[in-house]
Specification:
67% of the residues lie in helices and 1% in strands. A two-stranded antiparallel ribbon has the order 1-2. The radius of gyration is 24 Å and the shape is globular.
């Protein structure tokens, strides 16, 4: 395989960027001195157990919005908690949210990759896409992937590495750009997703505390989130090409997925014919799905008749659909191109794909146990409520308060990854609090969405973070937590600053946030 680095024509960072690179190098070295991620999760779990036992003896005045009772820290060192932890350990692991998504989706993706379908498709893409536009194209695709739940983590991020290496660029830069788009720009999307009504419901509940008649539209942030795509693509493009790629240029590529090659050779006539047949089969699959979804009585629709709301059967079937949409064209291409000659080749391809996930399974086991203990202890809720109370006590001007909401959310996001879990804690406090000083629930939600997105990519506690580490290790074996954090810090900080300034300017100019979305209350 090729270990060719990005061409020297890429812009080198200026003096200040070189200084920033030295800071990131120091961060990477410090981070990589941490224990193996699996051991780190064990140590963090031990900290949670000890800290929860110490704080469980204290009484807190904060009211838990989920129970309407004073917040209680649950000791994980009690006999009952230990028994519950041990008795549910297997279920905690097997029900770990990313686990099924990753494994099921990769079965189909593995067939598409082993057959050569993905490589052939990328050859065509690279043939028509100018090198200079690869980065924005990748980030835009990553942003659009939000519509399909967590599919971007499984599909777009690893493809970022493949695409960049195929173009003679460093694969870690491609993975970083894709990760930034999928996770750092999580709330930037021009296509409404199930997250919109999910957050709206919590915002509505928070607003009802102060004004029971106040309604919030599910698409109250749609215009702002759509416009935010431009910010994320532009900033991500600059950071990738001017900061990250020059920095990783000196990192040798010492590993790669088996059989991955730099795609410079043109497709043979047989491969070209196989590609068109595979694409036709994929188009036919999409047509069948559309035909099954269009009727108002479609079983893929929610009882309300919608297709993309949370709980709609179509949303629940996203991962199996990904499996099928890659399995079918992968099989067609494999048999048509001759890379598959029997069903044994297909099963062997699936097996080899699963074997690459062994390390991830180990990390996922310990990550699942830690997250279970952390959630059960209520430590995350305590930190979120303390932060919200501190923000309220400051009584800052409206614009500064909005910035404070963004920063509070960004800090909380490092500890609590779930967007809905954080908002369930914060909305009953922040929404009525800001309504009382004339800020609308819709603007508060928009501020929350910025903070909820930008620090995902630097939190090792984010459930997909270990998976991205594994993707990086396919190219650079020595990649650790510190390596990935150092890669993503420039995106995280720049996204946070640029997106916050964009919201303030958007607000100042009076552009609509979304449907039925004023800036002020009442």
């Amino acid at each position: 395989m090729s270990s060719e680095q990005p061409e020297q024509s890429l812009p080198l960072p200026r003096a200040e960027l070189r200084r920033a690179s030295r800071v990131l190098d120091a961060l990477e070295r410090a981070g990589n001195k941490l224990p193996d991620p699996a051991v780190l999760f064990v140590l963090l779990a031990a900290v949670v157990v000890v800290l929860s036992a110490a704080l469980a003896t204290l009484t807190f005045s904060e009211i838990d919005p989920r129970t309407k009772q004073p917040l209680v820290i649950h000791s994980q060192l009690s006999g009952k908690a230990i028994t519950e932890f041990l008795s549910t350990m297997v279920q905690t692991f097997t029900s770990f949210p990313p686990l099924g998504v990753v494994l099921v989706a990769l079965l189909g993706v593995g067939i598409a990759e082993r057959s050569g379908f993905i490589n052939a498709g990328l050859k065509k893409v690279l043939a028509v896409t100018p090198r200079v536009l690869l980065t924005p194209m990748l980030i835009l695709v990553a942003i659009a992937s939000h519509t399909a739940a967590d599919a971007g983590y499984v599909l777009v991020i690893p493809l970022g590495g493949v695409i960049f290496q195929a173009a003679g660029r460093h694969p870690l830069a491609g993975i970083a750009a894709a990760f930034a788009g999928v996770s750092g720009g999580f709330s930037a999307n021009f296509i409404p997703s199930s997250l919109d009504p999910l957050l709206q419901g919590l915002t509505q509940a928070g607003a009802s505390i102060l004004d029971p008649k106040r309604t919030v539209n599910p698409l109250c942030n749609w215009f702002f989130c759509s416009a935010s795509c431009l910010v994320i693509v532009a900033v991500g493009w600059y950071i990738t090409d001017r900061v990250i790629e020059p920095r990783v240029a000196r990192t040798p590529v010492d590993a790669a997925p088996e059989g991955e090659q730099r795609m410079t050779a043109a497709l043979t006539p047989r491969e070209a014919r196989a590609l068109w047949l595979a694409l036709a089969s994929m188009a036919a699959s999409v047509a069948l799905l559309v035909a099954a979804s269009v009727p108002a009585s479609s079983p893929l629709r929610a009882p309300s008749g919608q297709l993309t709301v949370s709980g709609a059967p179509l949303m629940g079937a996203i991962v199996p659909l990904i499996f099928l949409f890659f399995l079918v064209p992968g099989l067609v291409y494999g048999y048509a191109a001759g890379t598959f000659t029997s069903h044994r080749d297909v099963i062997d391809g699936m097996s080899k794909t699963m074997s690459t996930m062994a390390y991830y399974l180990v990390m996922a086991f310990f990550a699942a146990q830690f997250i279970h203990l952390f959630n059960r202890s209520n430590l995350g809720a305590l930190l979120a409520l303390k932060g919200a109370a501190g923000l309220q006590a400051l009584a800052l001007p409206s614009a500064v308060t909005i910035v404070g909401v963004i920063l509070l959310t960004a800090i909380t996001d490092i500890l609590i990854g779930s967007a809905s879990a954080k908002w369930a804690l914060l909305a009953p406090i922040l929404v009525p609090m800001l309504m009382s000083i004339g800020i609308s629930p819709e603007l508060t939600q928009a501020a929350y969405r910025i903070g909820d997105s930008t620090t995902n990519i630097i939190s090792p506690l984010m459930v997909y973070f270990p998976l991205v580490v594994v993707f990086c290790q396919k190219y650079v074996k020595g990649t650790g937590i510190g390596t990935l954090v150092a890669l993503m810090v420039p995106y995280s900080v720049t996204f946070l600053v640029a997106w916050t300034l964009f919201l303030l300017a958007y607000w100042q100019l009076g552009f609509p946030l979304g449907l039925d979305a004023p800036y002020v209350y009442p």
